């Protein structure tokens, strides 16, 4: 019983963090129809920068999100304005090429500037745990999870309660109609991309504590995030959260009751099963290509 | 030391490319065959390395190792009196690219010699190109058992032992303990990696034969990032020994999870993760390295010929960084080729090959010699973290520390 509770608790903690990392990807796709392959590279870029802030200046890596998030917001905004906006209206496959190129550039720059080696931030609490009955909850995971929940909550509130958020959602549902009622397409798109990138600011800072990383780690992350987003429904924030929780739980439950070797398979089996029944993913809306 | 299995398709591509390559090679002769006497003409050694992609980290270290060797030999007047020039290209950790790289190096650039690339995945394909072209292929990192089942004559693995024999020296140490002090139970988690898993499997079989009871085994995929579940499973079984087939992140990840769950085994062994000196100790926390065992092909302080010069020159060239094992392995591979070329006195692939099959080469890894299939016939060093530094503790003549920390203290 304790084993099951332990596995469930860890799965939820891991899932929450995955959800945060996947939220930017799904938001950007939802609004821009851009599949941002560079999201993983953004995470590693931020993780490296966070590591540096922690190592050289002594800022706590999770607190460093306060710095990295606005920074990534700016980076995302500039990237959209000067790079991504040039492929507006093109097929989503073009965005894959462009953002994959972006990911390679980031990996290359990190290789040269930061060096090709493994890093991980190890603040004092990284190896301590909270004990709840017989269940141990690693502190770093708990802090990361809480930060993720806060950010996801804020993102959700922005999208549902503010004019900007409604503009973003309107653009994602029907860009022409949104433009008709006065939503500036380029500004909204830049904002959505910036918000998506900003989520990688928090995600990357958390990643730096939880997982050792090096410049080429972004491949592992983007494949995991794409799986989550496809399962949840591309463009859906609640979908990303659900997909991430399923992946987290699939990992810990298969590791506990079978072998971790099956974890990936179990997750992709779930994806296949879901896509057979709901091709748009758990929470995805069917795309009306004629309206887009 | 990151390795990946080989797909059937890539093997097919490799052999096809190699066959085509061999046909093309017959059309031209190597520059050295015409002008071997010209002393000012550089001797060109072709290498393809994974400088980007999955294996970029060890690949870049290997490049440094080769470079240090080339700089040293050029300072000493070159090889056979000719300056050495390395032609290093990037294969982006791709099997397809490595095949076309070596084919181009051998058949178009007509390099005089080649040296191997990094990882079994890439060397498996690259060595097939070299074999078809009758080029001696000394490689620094490709010890998966599959490498040596193809009956290649030109393949030489420049490390002391292949994967299944890497932990022999650790098993020897367990054997040397009085029966009462040997671990009673053991857990064996391993990454699904052709370089990590055979080490752990072979160790488990040998220890089971000694009466060590296996209480846990598991294999996890390379992209595993969360180790709490494995750690909590093992903690529940309370094994005396945890022996992990750890490439790198997984080694750090498991130790961190064990610490979070407050379980410390009496003996901790990991395959290659702890050999990444600074990165490992900063990843798990320096206090927690105490007593962790691993086996390794090379050690910075080992008293092997030229080792001190290698370390000094490496540090001088790369901002005082300590060389990684991967750089040392590459350097040793170059030493092997150098010894053979010097002994033969010519760039003659057949003679070089025959000489290597018949002789033992002294390298910074210690003496290396090979079976007919290119498999090395030595033993790894047993190393242990002690007071924040990695020490060699066995075999005795290579040891840098006379004490062995046993049992391992609690994580700190």
From TrEMBL, chain A:
Cellular localization per UniProt: Cell membrane
One term of GO molecular function: transmembrane transporter activity
Superkingdom classification of source: Bacteria
Keywords: Amino-acid transport, Cell membrane, Membrane, Transmembrane, Transmembrane helix, Transport
Biological process, per Gene Ontology: amino acid transport
Membrane topology label: Multi-pass membrane protein
Keyword check for Transmembrane helix: yes
InterPro entries xref list: ABC_transp_permease, BCAA_transport_permease
Regions that span the bilayer: 6-30, 37-56, 62-83, 95-114, 140-159, 180-213, 225-250, 257-277
Key word Transport present: yes
Pfam families: BPD_transp_2
GO cellular component: plasma membrane
Principal location class: membrane
Protein family according to the UniProt entry: Belongs to the binding-protein-dependent transport system permease family. LivHM subfamily.
PANTHER family per the UniProt record, alphabetical: AMINO ACID ABC TRANSPORTER PERMEASE PROTEIN, BRANCHED-CHAIN AMINO ACID TRANSPORT SYSTEM PERMEASE PROTEIN LIVH
Identification of the protein by name: Branched-chain amino acid ABC transporter permease
Native species: Mangrovihabitans endophyticus
TrEMBL record, chain B:
Signal listed as a keyword: yes
Species per Swiss-Prot/TrEMBL record: Mangrovihabitans endophyticus
GO terms classed as biological process: amino acid transport
Domain of life of the native organism: Bacteria
Protein name: Branched-chain amino acid ABC transporter substrate-binding protein
PANTHER family: ABC TRANSPORTER SUBSTRATE-BINDING PROTEIN (PTHR30483:SF37), LEUCINE-SPECIFIC-BINDING PROTEIN (PTHR30483)
PROSITE patterns associated with the record: PROKAR_LIPOPROTEIN, TAT
Keyword match GTP-binding: no
């Amino acid at each position: 019983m304790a084993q099951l509770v332990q596995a469930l608790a860890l799965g939820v903690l891991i899932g929450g963090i995955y959800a945060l990392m996947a939220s930017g990807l799904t938001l950007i796709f939802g609004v821009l129809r851009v599949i941002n392959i560079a999201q993983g590279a953004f995470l590693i870029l931020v993780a490296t920068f966070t590591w540096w802030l922690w190592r050289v200046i002594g800022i706590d890596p999770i607190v460093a999100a306060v710095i990295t998030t606005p920074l990534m917001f700016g980076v995302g905004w500039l990237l959209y304005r000067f790079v991504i906006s040039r492929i507006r209206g093109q097929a989503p496959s073009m965005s894959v090429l462009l953002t994959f190129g972006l990911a390679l550039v980031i990996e290359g720059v990190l290789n040269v500037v930061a060096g090709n080696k493994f890093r991980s931030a190890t603040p004092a609490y990284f190896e301590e745990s909270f004990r709840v009955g017989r269940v141990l909850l690693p502190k770093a995971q708990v802090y990361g999870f809480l930060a993720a929940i806060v950010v996801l909550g804020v993102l959700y509130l922005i999208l549902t309660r503010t004019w900007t958020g409604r503009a973003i959602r309107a653009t994602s549902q029907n860009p022409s109609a949104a433009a008709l009622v006065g939503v500036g397409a380029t500004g909204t798109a830049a904002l959505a991309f910036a918000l998506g990138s900003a989520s990688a600011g928090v995600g990357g800072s958390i990643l730096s504590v939880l997982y050792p990383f090096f410049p080429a780690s972004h491949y592992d992350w983007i494949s995991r995030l794409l799986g989550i987003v496809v399962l949840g429904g591309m463009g859906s924030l609640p979908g990303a959260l659900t997909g991430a929780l399923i992946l987290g739980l699939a990992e810990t439950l298969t590791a506990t009751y079978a072998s971790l070797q099956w974890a990936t398979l179990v997750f992709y089996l779930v994806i296949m099963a879901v896509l057979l029944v709901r091709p748009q993913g758990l929470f995805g809306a069917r795309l009306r290509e004629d309206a887009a | 030391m990151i390795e990946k299995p080989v797909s059937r398709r890539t093997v097919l591509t490799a052999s096809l490319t190699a066959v085509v390559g061999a046909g093309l090679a017959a059309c031209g002769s190597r520059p050295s065959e015409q002008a071997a006497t010209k002393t000012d003409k550089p001797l060109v050694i072709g290498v393809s390395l994974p400088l980007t992609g999955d294996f970029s980290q060890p690949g870049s270290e290997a490049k440094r190792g080769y470079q240090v060797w080339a700089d040293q030999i050029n300072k000493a007047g070159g090889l056979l009196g000719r300056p050495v020039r390395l032609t290093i290209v990037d294969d982006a950790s791709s099997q397809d690219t490595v095949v076309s790289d070596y084919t181009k190096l051998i058949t178009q650039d007509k390099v005089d010699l080649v040296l191997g690339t990094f990882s079994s995945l890439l060397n498996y394909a690259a060595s097939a190109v070299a074999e078809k072209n009758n080029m001696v292929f000394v490689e620094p990192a490709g010890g998966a058992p599959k490498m040596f089942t193809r009956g290649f004559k030109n393949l030489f693995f420049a490390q002391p032992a292949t994967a299944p024999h890497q932990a022999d020296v650790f098993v020897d140490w367990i054997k040397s303990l009085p029966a009462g002090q040997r671990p009673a139970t053991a857990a064996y988690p391993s990454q699904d990696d052709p370089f990590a898993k055979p080490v752990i499997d072979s160790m488990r079989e040998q220890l089971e034969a000694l009466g060590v009871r296996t209480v846990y085994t598991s294999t996890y995929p390379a992209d595993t990032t969360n180790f709490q579940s494995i750690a909590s499973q093992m903690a529940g079984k309370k094994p005396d020994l945890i022996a992990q087939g750890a490439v790198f992140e997984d080694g750090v990840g498991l130790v961190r999870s064990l610490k979070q769950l407050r379980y410390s085994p009496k003996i901790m062994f990991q395959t290659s993760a702890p050999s990444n000196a600074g990165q490992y100790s900063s990843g798990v926390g320096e206090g927690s390295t105490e007593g962790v065992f691993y086996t390794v092909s090379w050690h910075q302080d080992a008293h092997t010929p030229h080792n001190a010069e290698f370390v000094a020159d490496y540090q001088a060239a790369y901002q005082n960084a300590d060389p990684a094992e991967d750089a040392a392995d590459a350097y040793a591979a170059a030493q092997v080729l150098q010894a053979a070329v010097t002994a033969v006195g010519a760039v003659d692939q057949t003679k070089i090959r025959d000489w290597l099959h018949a002789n033992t080469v002294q390298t910074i890894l210690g003496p290396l010699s090979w079976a007919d299939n290119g498999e090395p016939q030595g033993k790894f060093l047993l190393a242990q973290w002690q007071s924040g530094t990695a020490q060699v503790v066995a075999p005795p003549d290579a040891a840098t520390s006379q004490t062995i920390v046993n049992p391992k203290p609690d994580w700190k």
